[in-house]
């Protein structure tokens, strides 16, 4: 559904961030986009949303090119940025202005989510806390029913109960014809929700893999439970050393996304041996 081809972009011609990037995102998935600070996650979301223009290459969402900003493209894409600015209006008024841009917007779903998040339509967008603004925007995004929903650090600012509500809402509103792409550092907030996992590093997608394949090929365990020669990456713990190892048995283990992320960034060669097709360029 989303095809990024040969995309090149930088904030200046001398500092290229993405160089000939290719990436395909398929409908029916909630992609988790991970990467170190400054790796380019927010920039990639903005490029996909058509808010930045590539130097070269294309971003195609369901047949429409992002940088054309055609109505057909814009009505199918909703972007929840990390930093939000709103006019001095109530949630009701904001919804009233925004909804007509999204033909599949579901008003009753929106108000259900708003209530679930403990908000109401009379609240002024500007006067709400950061977390409350996030909740309002998440509700708008999910209710928009766009084919593509981009979320930049959506759980930042959410309190503990709201994080679990967020997970449930996202899972409920995912459908076979939608793609959700969630950039996050808070992998624990999104464990059991995001799948596949996409990792960007140095202007490249260095990992793009489903949880099924990850647990099929990799074992997440403790050092004493595996042969030394099978260990790919070790993280020293207080009680025990946690490891990512080759999974020869095919028996799945519980994936530790933090461990996976560190293994991908530090043990590229061995990770490439375990999941050979997944280092794109
Ligand atoms: N407006 C801008 N002008 C110039 N450089 C920028 C601008 N925005 C981002 N950058 C640079 O582009 C790179 C990627 O930034 P980006 O915000 O996309 O990273 P990120 O992965 O989202 O980071 P973080 O995890 O810290 O939010 C960084 O080196 C950053 O300094």
Automatic annotation (TrEMBL):
SUPFAM superfamilies: P-loop containing nucleoside triphosphate hydrolases. Keywords: ATP-binding, Nucleotide-binding, Transport. Residues 2-227 form the ABC transporter domain. InterPro entries: AAA+_ATPase (IPR003593), ABC_transporter-like_ATP-bd (IPR003439), ABC_transporter-like_CS (IPR017871), ABC_Transporter_VariousFunc (IPR051782), P-loop_NTPase (IPR027417). The keyword Transport applies. The keyword Translocase does not apply. This is ABC transporter ATP-binding protein. It comes from Flammeovirga agarivorans.
